[in-house]
Amino acid sequence: MMRLTSRSGPFQHHDRRPPSRLLLAWLLCGGLLASVLPTRPVLADASKEQLERAEAKALEAKFAFKAGKFADAAKLFLEAFAISKRPALVFNAARAWEEAGRLREAKAAFEQYLELPDVTAAGRADARARIDRLDVAIAAADKAAAEAKAAAEAKAAADAKAAAEAKAAADAKNAATGATPAATTTAPAESRSRWVGWALVGGGGLLALTSLASWSNAVKQVEDANAMDFGQADAESKYRSAITAAETTRNGAVLFGVIGAGLAGWGAWHLWFADDPAAEPAKTAFWGAPGLLPSGTGPTTGLLLGGRF
User: Rounded to whole angstroms, how far apart are CA atoms 261 and 270?
Assistant: First the structure.
């Protein structure tokens, strides 16, 4: 019999390298296996600088929590979590919201904590227990708010009903006695004479100041005239002109003073005595008939400027 010695025979092939198709199949299987296996978060991807920033944020949040600034602490904890992805930071944020009394934010943070990977069983149990307590507290707060709103609405309705009943009783009493219902009174607007009076006082004061200034100027003119050089050829005419000007200024000062005093006095009368019935018996008919000048005592100018409209 002939012995098979060919190297190409099925039992004589010694090449141990896998065929290319087999290698490709292995790679595909490995990739598929890697895609279905659960993966862990890559916390080491954060750089050293980022981790330092996260630690600084967490430390700041801790100080804020101890200082009672719970809302600020919660925000800082969440900012630190956004950098480092440490689940404990979300738990701390939830605790801060809880201490701040913001129960819904606290519940949302605890629920976010439960969705994160690498949370221990004890941490999950604690978070679930806290969520249960928060649900009870939120329900109680909602119930209290609803009861308070209902009570406020009931009180408003009762007050409106009592007011309506009181008005109906008053109307019935007036109808039985034949009395005219009293008109609803409102606070009277400030009389126009008030601001007119202040205007008169202010104008009078301004004229009084002008009078003082004019008088002082007149005195200065006289002093300058007396101090002039009388050795000049026309010294006498200059002196008389200066004295005349000083007298004119003085007369103007007197006139301003009199007018200012009158205006200020009339304004003061409007401010302090015009609303007094004893001081002004005929106040309701102050202007008389339309189109006529006012009647009464006092200077006509004062009546025209300070009268009631």
Answer: 14
